[in-house]
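Help needed: design a sequence for this.
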């Protein structure tokens, strides 16, 4: 199916148009503070199914439901003490909580893809918040990229991958955080399911103990994480102190090169996360078919950055 994808401004008229399209079951991409999401009304099965079609995404991958606040989240999921502590500390913000789903709360069955749990997120991005308030309903949204590709941090990235396949994208400029939300499961012991925009250390401080890790089942209930994900077309070589002939270079801190881009010349991991997907795209567009990547420390947001780089480098 091809449609003309509308580029909507992030003003009152654009948000009204976006909310109207969502209510009709159409797909609208919108900015959050992490990355752009591909939104659909989470209560309409056909609208949710269109997300999978537009992304070319495997059916079994469950979706995050975006809501404006904790009260709305509690309509769809059951929060234990740890989940409540995390929600109170970090919502709105780059944190997704996977909690036991409430039966009969009105979400499409496709949202949880057969799992007993639901992923809920309260974004802090101003455009996302405004859209949630106008639409006044739960918005299912994966990252707004074709399945397996780098997540979009600008409206133009969304159009690169999905133009003609979705009704609209709201242009809210560059995403502030630049990597996806941290996902924590609170259905047995609090578990880190995906490192992301909220540093793991901050989450552990809020619950007063270390997070367990995702069960290594290889199934999508240990989320998302098909080994090759977030993949640019070029091959990636990680922990490279300098590029080899023919490689472009993604630098960090003191490791930089005239042949490439530097995620953060000053070694700031927050700046590096915000630049990561945009710079991978820019280097991917160069004629060289290989990208060497400087070492990035694995603390704070560096964990999410290294996670995405390892997946982008995985054999496919
Ligand atoms: O920052 C973000 O989280 C962005 C923005 C748009 O909110 N969204 C995002 O969605 O990254 P997506 O679909 O690209 O990644 C969501 C991950 C997937 O790996 C999925 O498997 C996992 O969340 N997930 C969703 N529901 C789940 C559930 N019920 N149980 C376990 N994992 C779940
Ligand atoms: Mg994604």
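Sure. Designed sequence:
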């Amino acid at each position: 199916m091809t449609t003309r994808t509308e580029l909507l401004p992030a003003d009152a008229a654009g948000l009204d148009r976006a909310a109207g399209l969502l209510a009709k079951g159409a797909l609208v991409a919108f900015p959050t503070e992490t990355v752009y999401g591909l939104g659909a009304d989470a209560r309409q099965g056909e609208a949710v199914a269109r997300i999978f079609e537009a992304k070319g995404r495997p059916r079994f991958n469950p979706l995050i439901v975006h809501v404006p606040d904790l009260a709305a989240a509690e309509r769809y999921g059951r929060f234990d003490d740890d989940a409540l502590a995390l929600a109170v500390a970090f919502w709105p913000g780059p944190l997704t909580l996977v909690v036991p789903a409430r039966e009969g709360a009105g979400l499409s069955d496709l949202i949880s893809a057969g799992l007993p749990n639901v992923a809920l997120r309260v974004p802090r991005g101003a455009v996302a918040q405004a859209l949630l308030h106008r639409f006044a309903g739960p918005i299912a949204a994966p990252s707004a990229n074709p399945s397996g590709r780098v997540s979009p941090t600008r409206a133009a990235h969304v159009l690169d991958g999905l133009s003609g396949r979705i009704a609209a994208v709201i242009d809210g400029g560059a995403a502030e955080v630049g990597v996806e939300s941290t996902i924590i499961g609170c259905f047995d012991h609090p578990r880190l399911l995906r490192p992301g925009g909220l540093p793991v250390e901050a989450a552990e401080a809020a619950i007063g103990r270390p997070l367990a890790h995702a069960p290594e089942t290889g199934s999508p209930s240990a989320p998302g994480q098909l080994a090759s994900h977030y993949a640019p077309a070029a091959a990636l070589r990680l922990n490279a102190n300098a590029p080899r002939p023919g490689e472009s270079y993604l630098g960090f801190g003191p490791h930089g090169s005239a042949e490439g881009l530097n995620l953060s010349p000053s070694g700031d991991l927050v700046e590096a996360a915000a630049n990561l997907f945009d710079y991978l795209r820019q280097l991917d567009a160069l004629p060289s078919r290989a990208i060497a990547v400087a070492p990035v420390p694995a603390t704070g947001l560096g964990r999410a950055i290294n996670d995405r780089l390892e997946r982008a480098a995985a054999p496919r």
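The chain has nine helices and 15 strands.
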